[in-house]
Amino acid sequence: MAQYGFYVDLNACIGCKACQMACKDRAGNEPGINWRRVIEVGGGEWRQSGTSWTPDIFAYFLPTACHHCSNPPCLPVCPTAAISKDDNGIVKINVEQCIGCHYCEWACLWGAPQFYEDRGIVDKCDFCKDIVDAGGSPACVEACPMRAMEWGDIEELRASHPGATFAVVPLADPQDFGPNSTYTAHVASTDRVGEILNQEEI
Amino acid sequence: MSKHDDTNLLDRLNAATLSRRSFLKWSAAAGATAALTTKVDLINGIYPLEKALAAGDVQIMPTGCAHNCGGRCVLKAHVQDGVIVRITSDTDRPDDPLDPQLRACVRGRSYRRRVYAPDRLKSPLRRTGPRGSGQYEEISWEEAVTAVADNLMRIKETYGNSAIYSHYATGAGSLTNGSGNVARLLDLYGGRLGYYNNYSWAAIQAATPTVYGTQNTGQSRLDWLNSKLILMWGWNPAEMIDGTNTMYFVKRARAAGAKTIIIDPRHTMSAVGLADEWIPIRPGTDTAMMAAMAYVIITEQLADEEFVNKYALGYDADHMPEGYENAESFKAYILGESDGVPKTPAWAEEYTGVPADTIARIGREYGTTKPAMLYQGYGIQRRAYGEQVVRMGCTLPVLTGNVGVSGGWASGIAFAVSSESTPGAGFPSVANPVPYSVPCFSYTDAILRGKEMGREDGIIGLADDEQTLPNSIKFLYNCAGNCLTNQHGNINRTHEILADETLAEFIVTHDHFLTPSAKMSDIVLPACTWMETWGMAANWKYGPSRILMPQVIEPLYGTKSDYAIAAMIAERLGIYDEYTGGGKTEEDWYNEWVDKMVADNPTVYGDRDSFVERGSMTIPYQENPPIAFADFISDPEANPLGTPSGKIEIFSAALAARNNPEEIPAIPKFIIEWDSPWAPVAEKYPLQAIGTHYMHRIHSTLDNIDWMDEAFPQRAFINVNDAKERGIAEGDLIRVWNDRGEMKIPARVTPRIMPGVVNIPQGGWYSPDAEGVDQRGCTNVLTSEKPTPYAYGNTQQTIMVQVEKV
Predict the structure, then answer these.
(1) In the CATH scheme, what is the code of domain B125-199+423-538+551-614?
(2) Is B11 a residue whose pLDDT tops 70?
(3) Domains of chain A and CATH, by start
(4) From A22, B122, B676, B748, which residue has the greatest number of CB atoms within 10 Å?
């Protein structure tokens, strides 16, 4: 079985949210629901000396969606077995079967499953399964104006981007779930730990 | 269908899971118009259409994005049963490094949310309350266009054509939509007071030729890959979109070895993803830092004096223009020989807030790295003395020998010397019979006191025996724009002028929404979007492209294209045949243009059918693109520049002749702005404000679109230190004000802006409460209407404010 995943070079990410909007448009999601989000992370301080200012600040953007985990925590908790993992490792919710119990939403460490109040169901990134199965690319990846995103077999992505990692602040510790997103960390984050700067947007 | 029925339907949909079958069955039963309305509501409120209609046939229609940013992108509308259900971009062709896909940003990708926005104008409106009150009644198209035509006839007869004016407007640029349709109508009707300049580039368009004699001072983006150092000065291509793919070319230039340094008050999106270093600088002091870099370059013998004295005038006392041998040279100014103030890095630190050693280091880096680019953004010249930063920015490349070389950059407005355009077609051009033009940033003055405005106000076209305009503006036409009020300097003053019906006697607007500008209009005409009519677009700066925009869906609610609206008015003015070329529809024109483009340029466009099916055409970049000024540098005598002297004019005799050395110096100088930390106003208003381009919008376009508001909410971005001093926490509602106006807006407290600077992204729709306090963050509540001294350009980035927690 293959396992699809996402790769993003955070050094080239400008935080433009083309990926997020392409996803939103394809999914037809209302405000409040975003299968892909872009987190702005940063911190640091300003130093004043006489009339001048020197920044000791940093920032980077982190596009993130469902990681289509190898051992997805959302899957076993679904009481109606509405969540499945296909031959390409895509984790998908069958909304016809979903009863909106929120269990998957609570089980996920990264907020991927999201509750639709109007429909009483939970849904999330499906890796653009219909498009990918038909030979296309996920909407987010083909939207990136910086060509910073890639998708494909996660092992191949990891092999072609040495040093790529999932350990990027503020993504939660994956425990043994095996998230299949990988990133080249922004140079600004190599020795700094930031905080989320755009909480209201995500 | 009544609103009541809609509500019932939505309730029903909420109550039950709707299968596609039952949805379609209901739609078909309801009849065409009702079904359309129903689906529109579905898109906006209830059901993810992608899923509801997943099994149906989807037609993918080529269209494009013709907003007023620097780019032009390909859009593909996925249409099902007459409804746009998804928008994708340029994905159906390879992404070639020499011919990259024209990938749309969030603005184009959200476009269906605009097409189906619930607040779309659905009927012509006639004002019933005072101007600006927003009180309107719905009227018929017949009544509306008759009112416009009657007032045009009356004002033409009473005052003459020079009392008629159509203001700068850029909300749509797809030929059959956009302000050009109204300009053509008025020109066929005897003409109008024209305008020159724009709100983007006024100072840089005027100042660049004073140095170089041309605006074509740039070269292909492909040549950026040959540069070793790029100073991105106030330049933020990631956000303002300086050409589709420009940020991608910066990425590639870095990969090819260029170091990039951003000089900007904000840690911009470009600073995160495109830069090796970021240097924050106080707004309006860029010229001081550049002058200090020149000081370092000159005093440390890094200046290429042989180069500068061979190609330029005004560098030192031995190379001054004839008649100005004893005037102040650039070198004398920089070294302080004339004014006693050497422009040292320590001197510049006082103004810029940039540490002197940093300024010196950047001066050395730029002076020693060959070739290097100094790329000027445009925000830095929308300021009180915007001409100076342009002229100083053009001088540094001359000092360092970076003009006319591959990997260098002459700076200035930098249109590409290699023609980056595609052969096009369009409406037949009509000359404006009225000879006069006003700087667009002085248009409110032309309403208030047009008959007193003369050459000293920037009026052009006056005959030798005319001192002033013959008329003030009496008829104000606003087609596809929000510059009437929202995007113009000092909105409270603008409102006062427009509200006076004895001044502008009639105001008409075409738009999709009741914008702040539309709200000042007597008649508002509901235009359709470009996806509802026929048109095309082309790149205008980088990356030659032509994007066809055939009709994707029928106009909603009976709205009409700007062309169709103007044609109805033309009919009542008795110029219908002239205007429509004998009754041509938008589709007729579109087909004629495509036929002509294909027939005239078979090697470019190839076969018509495949071009139309593809929907767009790009011309790939060629390796080794032409370099600006290469001919001049190789043989300056044989290839003189378009300046009066034929040389690069660091000292401009033409500017000296203006006899205003304090504001229009003959050599570039740092001038303290009238609203600045060093002006008296700073005692009351100690913070500098800027209004940058924002991902949420293109200027004010898309401000009302909820997807955009979610992704990039309108906020006042304030430094953590300034916020702490004022007890302001993230998300707090704050009051931002100066003597011109006031707003309340939530704060975004961030380390990513320089202390002392507040950014309120420009383009928020002015939304005053009962006390006149804006609730949306319309920057122009705070800006001045005062123009720049030479270009008569806009100065909307020169703002001082105070901020407090509400």
Answers:
(1) 3.40.50.740
(2) no
(3) 4-201 (3.30.70.20)
(4) A22
- Write out pLDDT tens, residues A105-138: 999 999 999 999 999 999 999 999 999 999 999 9
Looking at residue B417, its pLDDT comes to 86
Do the Cβ atoms of A144 and B112 come within 8 Å? no
Quickly state the pLDDT bin for B56 (edges 50, 70, 90).
low
Out of B46, B85, B269, the one facing A15 most closely (by C-beta) is: B269
The answer to whether the Cα torsion of B727, B730, B731, B734 is positive or negative is positive
Of A145, A186, A201, which is closest to B711 when you measure between CB atoms? A201
Q: A189 at the B interface (CB within 8 A)?
A: no
Q: Are B413 and B217 in contact (CB under 8 A)?
A: yes
Cβ distance A53 to B358 less than 8 Å, yes or no, reads no
How far B498 CA lies from chain A's nearest CA (Å)? 36
Q: Provide mean pLDDT across the span B35-42.
A: 37
- From B281, which residue of chain A is nearest by alpha-carbon distance? A53
CA B578 to chain A, closest CA, distance in angstroms equals 42
Pull the structure tokens for residue B184: 């053509």
Per DSSP (E only), the strands in B365-436 are 372-376
Which residues, 6 or more positions from B359, have their beta carbon under 8 angstroms from its beta carbon? B289, B292, B293, B296, B345, B348, B349, B352
Chain B: residue whose CA lies nearest to A13: B273
**Using CA atoms, how far apart are residues B735 and B737, in angstroms rounded to an integer?**
6
Contacts of A14 in chain B (CB under 8 A): 238-239, 247, 269-270, 272-274
Q: pTM of the full predicted structure?
A: 0.94
The pLDDT-based confidence of B583 (bands split at 50, 70, 90) is: very high
CB-CB: which of A15, A53, A145 is closest to B754? Answer: A53
User: Do B401 and B158 meet the contact criterion of CB atoms below 8 Å apart?
Assistant: no
CATH code matching the domain that covers B210-419+626-656, chosen among 3.40.228.10, 2.60.120.20, 3.40.50.2300, 3.90.79.10: 3.40.228.10
Round the average pLDDT of chain B to a whole number and report it.
93
Q: Give residues with Cβ within 8 angstroms of A167, minimum separation 6.
A: none
Mean pLDDT of B704-721: 98
Mutate which: A57, A93, A114, vs B, most B CBs within 10 A: A57
The ranges assigned to domains in chain B are: 125-199+423-538+551-614, 210-419+626-656, 680-805
B680-805: CATH number: 2.40.40.20
